[in-house]
Amino acid sequence: MKEVILITGRTLKQGSNLENKMSDAYFDAAARCEMNENLLTRIGASVGDAVKVSTRFGEVVVNAEKDDGLPDGHIFIPMGPWANAIVDPDTGGVGTPTFKGVPANIEKTDGAVLSVKDLIARYREG
Amino acid sequence: MAAETVSNVVCPLCGCLCDDIEVIVEDGKISNVKKACPLGKNKIMGHDRIKAPMIRENGEFKEVSYDDVIEKSAQILAQAKRPLLYGWASLICEAQRKGVELAEEIGALIDTTASVCHGSTVVGVQGRGAPGCTLGEIKNRADLVIYWGCNPQEAHPRHRARYAHSVKGMYRPNGKNDRKVFVIDVRETKTAKVADEFVKIDPGYDYMAFSALRTILAGHADVVPDTVGGVAKEKLVEMVDAMKSCEFGVIFGGMGLTHTRCRYKNLENVISLVDELNAHTKFTLIPMRGHYNVNGSGHSLAWLTGYPFAIDFSRGYAWYNPGETTSNDLLMRREVDAMMAIAGDPGAHFPGESLRHMAKIPLIQIDPYANPTTELADIVIPTAVSGVEVDGTAYRMDGVPIRTRKVVETEYLTDEEVLERILTRVRELKGGN
Question: Which of chain B's ends, N or C, has fewer CB atoms near its CB within 10 Å?
Fold first, then answer.
């Protein structure tokens, strides 16, 4: 397990499926965690492997992807329900949750990446 | 039937509101979209729609009529003590106006997607001013462009080409060669890769960087530490030199400033920097607004209520207090007892803690497409796609209002029609009081 900083945000593929969120294309675009090659190696994961990302606010399983534009110790999950399962809900007194710069832990896992429906169903169950 | 090309269509995806799109229509259906970016093309081409109005019964959706969902929605909203009407970004100003009327009628809270986006920018502007200009001025005049905490290559893909970088302007005839582009970000984004200079900053250090730039600008570089947020002092001095010596500069601010610590204080600080730069040259700031008409929601709500988002009508008049009357604060305090999500997708874009409460209260969704909010909704009302099937007014990220075009006909009700019918029924239920 490695300590990292989580950033979330828009990507071209996520944005291209904004109105198509129940699709496989959106799942591929948003249920992922990008990191540089060094971090992939350090957690013993390859591109496409499932990784568990946990913060003080929850945990989520997503697919590992490589982006060498990310500095060491930083991960990026596209904005969406997978990222929002673990972002910091604190709104800083102005209404906006902390979507970027959240301390997190990341590790390789055998767990399954949940579909949108299954992910959201967790909230219906409380 | 022959294919018809509809020209100068306004793209209803992001705050660029590109107004040069060509849409090919065959047999009343859109068959192709030209000139748009992948985001806009996919939006205009469309995806599988919600087929019919639906009500959830025993956990499963049942298709019903528009009359049924409007009656049920009106009952929920008329009876609610603390209803929240959220979204209002991916639709036209005419529907936003109707939303304010409904909110006032039922004493609701009305909040927009700015709440989780540029709300902090709006608050910063209220505190310090709005040193803006139009994108046309950027195109024609800007020789220094700074993208700070934003990644237009992925979020606003035509922004550089149409308004800010490669585009040729009246006083920038050589386009890219007449401009310098800086990107300040925590990671090397696709935009960073096409900029002249990428300055990597540590997450959460924007406020300090703005303070350092202001200090250097004021002639006190000697008190600035060797590095600020991971940025070398020499680089900061170089940036100030570039800012002071340009003829027309602009900072485009993104979520990198509003989603991290300091939020609206980041904006107050960068606006102060822009203010001080105007003692040396012309400098401006434009927020990179996301949804195509989220800026319009701020304008519509402000001219109707005095406030741009997070408005509470429970006192009988408009009350505004971000941090208290913003959607996520309300949901996490478990204060809301009914919610309408319209033209925004809180199911995808709110933290889990807010969704837990949304799952427990009656939730009405008004949207053309199924999304994570649908999975939590009790009532689903499909509507026409604004900007494709309905024309109306939208505000570009620089505050320029643009009339969107209707490209094809639809059998779906418009957002405005649905809201009008709910409002009429709410008034009947409340006995005209």
Answer: C
